[in-house]
Amino acid sequence: MASLTDFISPITDALGLTDSKSGQRAKEAMVSGQQNADARLDSDIASSLEELRRASAGRDFGSNLDQYGNRMDSAFGNTERAGLIASDQMNAGDSSNVRNYLNPMMDEMLARTSQAMQGNAGASLQSSATNKNISNAVAQKAGDLWNTAFSQALGDAQNNLNVASNVGQSAAQTGSLAGQQLAANNAPMEDLLSLQNDRAMQRYAANTGMTQADMALAGQKNTIL
Questions:
Q1: Distance (Å, rounded) from C-alpha 163 to C-alpha 78?
Q2: pLDDT tens across 121-164, in order?
Q3: SS (H, E, C) 96-136
Q4: How far is CA 39 from CA 33, 35, 43, in A?
Q5: Which residues contact 181 (CB under 8 A, 6 or more apart)?
Q6: Between the CA atoms of 174, 189, 205 and 211, what dihedral angle is there, to the nearest 10 degrees?
Q7: What is the pLDDT of residues 82-134, one digit of tens each?
Q8: Residues 98, 153: contact at Cβ < 8 Å?
Q9: What is the per-residue DSSP string for 132-184?
Q10: C-alpha dihedral, 22 to 24 to 30 to 35, nearest 10°
Q11: How far is it, in rounded angstroms, from Cα 215 to Cα 220?
Q12: What angle (nearest 5°) sits at the alpha carbon of residue 59, between those of residues 55 and 63?
């Protein structure tokens, strides 16, 4: 049902006494301005959005995390390998390990040493002094062979420890590079989401402002007095 104001407003508007359509014009200008602002914003960021979409293609967070997990598994495997290598060298100087490095001709070499000493002894072969000299010579030869084997065992152990150290460093580098690669792979998607979120928040703020303006306009009295 039309009110008295609805009948009188066109007359008073025409006489310049009132302007009953000012609120509606303000709302239409506000809506038009916001639409133009949205269109300009879309145009301004269109190229950036497209570049980020291309950069993030195939780099969704799930795939990135899967790749990171695979690299870290590899790094962990190398770390474990380095630990095992290092652990194996703990008993490098034990006699059971050194024996593995003894000259396989050791018995023959000791026998030749004994024979050489016996040949040099001549007629005094049965003297206790000669037997002692032979025993000392054999013992000296055995000691030399043992020292050589011991040095070789420790040398191999040091080489293996160097390998373990390199493997460990490689594992650490792999882990560090995996983290850097994850950050690099995530960057385009993070930037894309951030830009889209900024646009959404800007429009939310604008819509909130327009709603408040609508409420203010709706609360205005459209009366002559």
A1: 11
A2: 554 555 677 778 888 888 888 888 899 999 999 999 999 899 89
A3: HHHHHHCCCCHHHHHHHHHHHHHHHHHHHHHCHHHHHHHHH
A4: 10, 6, 6
A5: 67, 68, 71
A6: -140
A7: 888 888 888 888 888 888 888 888 888 888 888 877 766 554 555 677 778 88
A8: yes
A9: HHHHHHHHHHHHHHHHHHHHHHHHHHHHHHHHHHHHHHHHHHHHHHHHHHHHH
A10: -140
A11: 9
A12: 175
Q: With 0-12 CB in 10 A as exposed, 13-18 as middle and 19+ as buried, what is 146? A: middle
Q: Which amino acid is at 20?
A: S
Structure tokens at 15: 């006489």
CA distance linking residue 157 with residue 29, whole number of Å: 84
Which residue type does 153 have? Answer: A
Give the 3-state secondary structure of 60-101: CHHHHHHHHHHHHHHHHHHHHHHHHHHHHCCCCCCHHHHHHH
| Residues 59 and 183 sit within 8 Å (Cβ to Cβ) | no
CB 182 within 8 A of CB 65: yes
Q: How far apart are CA 121 and CA 129, in angstroms?
A: 10
Sorted by where each begins, the domain ranges of the chain are 25-218
| pTM summary value | 0.58
Sign of CA dihedral 9, 218, 22, 32: negative
Asked if 192 contacts 50 with a C-beta cutoff of 8 angstroms, the reply is no
